[in-house]
Amino acid sequence: MKQFVVIGLGSFGISLAKTLYEMGNDVLVIDKDEELVQSMAGLVTHAVRADATDENVLKSLGVKNFDVAIVAIGKNMESSIMITMLVKEMGVKYVIAKAHNELHARVLYKVGADRVVMPEKDMGIRVARNIFSSNLLDLIEFSKDYSIAEILPIEEWFHKTLKEIRMRERYGLNVIAAKKMNNEIIVSPGPDYVVDEGDILAVCGKNIDIKKFEIKM
Amino acid sequence: MKQFVVIGLGSFGISLAKTLYEMGNDVLVIDKDEELVQSMAGLVTHAVRADATDENVLKSLGVKNFDVAIVAIGKNMESSIMITMLVKEMGVKYVIAKAHNELHARVLYKVGADRVVMPEKDMGIRVARNIFSSNLLDLIEFSKDYSIAEILPIEEWFHKTLKEIRMRERYGLNVIAAKKMNNEIIVSPGPDYVVDEGDILAVCGKNIDIKKFEIKM
Ligand SMILES: Nc1ncnc2c1ncn2[C@@H]1O[C@H](COP(=O)(O)OP(=O)(O)OP(=O)(O)O)[C@@H](O)[C@H]1O
Ligand SMILES: Nc1ncnc2c1ncn2[C@@H]1O[C@H](COP(=O)(O)OP(=O)(O)OP(=O)(O)O)[C@@H](O)[C@H]1O
Ligand SMILES: [Ca+2]
Ligand SMILES: [Ca+2]
Ligand SMILES: [Ca+2]
Ligand SMILES: [Ca+2]
To answer: Where do the RCK N-terminal domain residues begin and end (chains A, B) (predicted)?
Structure first.
């Protein structure tokens, strides 16, 4: 269980916060709109009405102790930039911010965002690339039992091939891709692919099978 | 090469249209804003300034002959609903519409949309589920060389196991999931999985390897 704070309850912030909570995490949401805050009661751990550009508010809520902050404000760029900077300065390890356009995105990275999301643009690319698919992968991604995730190999896999490890039979995992230490990406590695210590593996399988290998931050 | 018409040039419509064009498709974009239309010159096949709620406009542009229409209007629900209905009535086979909220989505399905996308909400779920990943799959999805796609099995695969087919060695494809005729989904099918005639297979591999098996509409 990780601690998340989601600032801004637009469609993006709401669905993100609800999903994180459903996944078993501790989720605090903040918005300056009282009605929106009330509508989240029971759907997240805590919902607070506040202006997040106020540093004292963030301090009194203990934001610095959270593992991840998501700044889900799009239209009000000024606030989104200020809040992103504040939470990063306070020491939140991982900050995700939503951008309205490319320029906004660049500023967010400059002030400390670890990841910037542009939902409309990103979904445009995604839908284009998957237009003729029947959304099998979305079904997996949105399913409660299965996931596609990234894991770190355990010691007993080091320097063995996928065949030797018997990844599918013993671990129920299908390796879709591997990222080497030098950032090289091996897509669809064959049975003779040798797992290295520094690898990150993208796998598909049951949540209970994946959980055992989850990447810890 | 397919023919696409994208109506509405917000962030979603723009990135969708550009990506479809980059993928080698024929793309017509329509928006009532002259400046936006001009900014698409050279980035798509045709860009036309017009009000798409006008049935005569859609007829004169030959919209009924397009394979896919994407109605990428969010805020103006009335227009988005009218246009979705019009293009479907005209005979466009596959209509994707963008919704602003759940109610809007339901109306769009009722008037004929084949798929409804809610970029902010969908990305909220997606980001929540992938929060600790290093985005290996996004790298694949956004790469020009590799894809994750859905394919139909060819005749010589019918009733054979993945091991017998030697899917990875001979075809360079990694089968991530299979959807049976009865809609059952087998995630991460093992080497002994028997491919059936009615299966849809989600695979990962090089674009050139996948292209051979692409699902035709
Ligand atoms: N300084 C702030 N402190 C707290 N909440 C804020 C602050 N500024 C904006 N918000 C909240 O952020 C939420 C989302 O903001 P905004 O409307 O800009 O996002 P959006 O990208 O337009 O989302 P959507 O398109 O879903 O409406 C709003 O509910 C707003 O009340
Ligand atoms: N009837 C219409 N005919 C043609 N274009 C239209 C029509 N109605 C709206 N549009 C265009 O659709 C585009 C997107 O509309 P809208 O602003 O509602 O979408 P949006 O979801 O808010 O997108 P974004 O958030 O990226 O601004 C606008 O550029 C607008 O000019
Ligand atoms: Ca899942
Ligand atoms: Ca919008
Ligand atoms: Ca928006
Ligand atoms: Ca790709």
So the answer is: 1-118
B154 touches chain A (CB under 8 A): no
Q: Are B162 and B175 in contact (CB under 8 A)?
A: yes
CA of A138 to the centre of ligand 1 (A): 27
Contact B132 A150 (CB under 8 A): yes
The two structure tokens encoding residue A51? 């202006």
Higher pLDDT pick, A44 / A141? A44
Give Cβ neighbours of residue B43 (< 8 Å, ≥ 6 apart): B17, B18, B21
pLDDT (tens digit, 9 = 90+) per residue, A197-206? 989 898 888 8
CB proximity A119 to B under 8 Å: yes
Closest of B28, B63, B10, B1 to residue B211, by C-alpha: B1
Q: Which ipTM score applies to this complex?
A: 0.80
Q: How deeply is A55 buried, as exposed, middle or buried, from its count of CB atoms within 10 A (0-12, 13-18, 19+)?
A: middle
Q: Among partner residues A11, A13, A148, which is closest to B118 by beta-carbon distance?
A: A11
**Which domains, ranges and CATH numbers included, belong to chain A?**
3-124 (3.40.50.720), 136-211 (3.30.70.1450)
